[in-house]
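Hi all, posting the design record for the shared folder.

TITLE: backbone redesign
STEP: 1 of 1
STRUCTURE INPUT:
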């Protein structure tokens, strides 16, 4: 029964296939220049759709639960980066500079939206608060992630310039704002054709991953990243995920939140977005070895899905047992 939670999801299988394709058939030369133009358009479309799907009434309704949202944002943008810095201080020679840059980039990304809400729902948490918390994390992340990257990644991956921050505002924030403006007109249409929108979302990510790893492979990625490096990233990601899950779970209890809110804080505060992370990396680290920077995030993404699926089932069973025993 539990084994099915450890089977990689279909999207991860596609990402791995894309990585292999980029390894053996990378796009290079003039074709890579044209491909970059297509990717820029795809990223802009992706964030336009993010803005157009988001109902403003949902965000406004969730603002009243400010303590919960503050906890999620603290976990996402303060505790996570501090954990990343701690790993770097405790083991400066354990991870290569490129992979450590990827680890720190992972730590400064916003939370996921879809999976945070889904796991909160399965576990019996506060779903409306999860919608608002995850959404707020993504909106704030468009502003905050580039600033944190400039602060924490000056010495890794070539640093992050002001031009990169300006580019991410224009390429990601502007389409998002335009999407929000268009939301009253497109919201129902996008909800009706949700599957098509999902294909566009994931298709954009796949294109970016293929281009990023094509460039990385052509500049010698697999000569610099060994099997030992991948094992280390697996272990470090596991420690990072375990630490943030423990902090969000027990921290919410110490702060006096009820069971539903604890579940919401745990799931919204412990995950990182691949959907926004991949295009952000493409803009922030343009011209650099993005493939190595994305590796920790891709591995962490699958780990968080598997672990949080088990945790959601555990919360759900706990709630069911307490209900069967006559109360909470």
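Okay, here is what came back for every position:
SEQUENCE:
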């Amino acid at each position: 029964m539990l084994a099915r939670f450890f089977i990689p999801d279909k999207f991860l299988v596609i990402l791995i296939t894309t990585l292999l394709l980029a390894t053996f058939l990378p796009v290079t030369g003039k074709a890579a220049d044209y491909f970059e133009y297509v990717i820029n358009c795809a990223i802009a479309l992706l964030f336009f759709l993010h803005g157009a799907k988001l109902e403003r009434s949902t965000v406004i309704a969730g603002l009243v639960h400010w303590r919960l949202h503050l906890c999620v944002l603290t976990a996402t943008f303060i505790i996570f980066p501090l954990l990343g810095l701690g790993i770097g201080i405790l083991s400066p020679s354990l991870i290569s500079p490129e992979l450590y840059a990827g680890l720190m980039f992972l730590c400064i990304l916003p939370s996921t939206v879809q999976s945070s809400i889904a796991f909160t729902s399965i576990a019996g948490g506060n779903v409306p608060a999860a919608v608002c918390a995850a959404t707020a994390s993504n909106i704030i992340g468009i502003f905050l992630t580039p600033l944190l990257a400039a602060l924490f990644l000056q010495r890794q991956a070539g640093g992050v310039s002001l031009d990169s921050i300006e580019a991410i505002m224009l390429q990601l924030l502007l389409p998002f704002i335009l999407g929000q403006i268009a939301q009253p007109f497109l919201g129902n249409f996008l909800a009706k054709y949700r599957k098509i929108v999902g294909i566009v979302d994931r298709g954009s990510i796949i294109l970016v991953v293929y281009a990023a790893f094509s460039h990385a492979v052509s500049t010698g990625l697999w000569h610099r990243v060994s099997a030992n490096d991948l094992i280390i990233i697996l272990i470090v990601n596991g420690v990072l995920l375990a630490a943030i899950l423990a902090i969000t779970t027990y921290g919410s209890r110490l702060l006096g939140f009820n069971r539903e809110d604890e579940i919401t804080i745990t799931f919204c505060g412990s995950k990182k977005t691949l959907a926004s992370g991949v295009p952000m990396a493409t803009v922030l680290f343009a011209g650099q070895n993005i493939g190595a920077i994305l590796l920790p995030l891709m591995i962490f993404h699958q780990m968080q899905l598997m672990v949080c699926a088990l945790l959601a089932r555990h919360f759900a069973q706990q709630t069911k047992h307490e209900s069967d025993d006559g109360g909470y």
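COMMENT: The mean pLDDT is 81.
Let me know if anyone wants the other runs.
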